[in-house]
Write a structure and sequence with these properties.
Elements (H helix, E strand, L loop, with lengths): L8 E4 L5 E5 L2 E6 L2 E6 L3 E7 L2 E6 L9 E4 L4 H14 L12 E4 L4 H26 L2 H37 L1 E10 L4 E6 L5 E6 L5 E7 L2 E6 L4 H34 L1
Antiparallel strand pairs: 1-2, 2-3, 3-4, 4-8, 5-6, 6-7, 9-10, 9-12, 10-11, 12-13
Length: 263
Amino acid sequence: MSPTSLPTFVLRGSDGSVLRCQDGAVTVRRAGEEHHIPLAAIGRVRAEGRAVTVELTAPAGAEPTAYAVTDVSEAAATAFAEAVDAALPERAADGAALVTTHEVAVPATARRRAVAVAAAVPVVALGAFVGATGRGEDAVVFGLAVLAIVLGGWLARVTGRGLYRMWRMPRHGITVVAELSHHTNTTRVYRYEDTAGNSHTYTDPVGGQHIELSYDPRDPATAIRPEGLYVRCMMALMATAGCVLVGGGLYAAGRLLVTALTG
């Protein structure tokens, strides 16, 4: 198999690492860095269960550099290793010298996960404090209050952002007609072009052959489908319900904390 005919693979590990094979090279992304590895730098690829290891060539007597991604599909790991090994050209003497590394932005999901973990620690400590200084059921009520705050905040944020986009983009964005590209098991995928000629996709569970979309000229990949008054009113009610949940949760949690502190 030649490098030009190498299939495109994307393997994602549980720790956020991404192993990608595309355009005659292998890339490994993890911890805010992406390593670009030409095929000539690879000595072999090992698939061991749900782990894939890309081992570089190395001078005689030197320990070869290796990049591993774990907790991937076993079938995908085997297919990746077989495809890359079959496409390897003549190897370089020192593969590490051919690898280029550059920084990449940490995905928003990773940042949110880190924030969630950092916030959970003091919340759990406060819940334990409330339960220890009061009744045991107070800790349960405190946990329910925190849950209401989290769910209400999420609901208000999602629906509020959607409402803002529905108001702003048709007025200050660019409206285009998107054409149905293909179906998936659960949704329809539409394709549209921005003013620069770049193609973007938009998913919607319902729609015909063509739909109208409004996108932000500063971020053409972000588009919304303008909705009618009924949908906007329902979203406003959901945003209001989210705010009520946040307010009620804050009141309940605050009252329990004050009671625990004052005895």
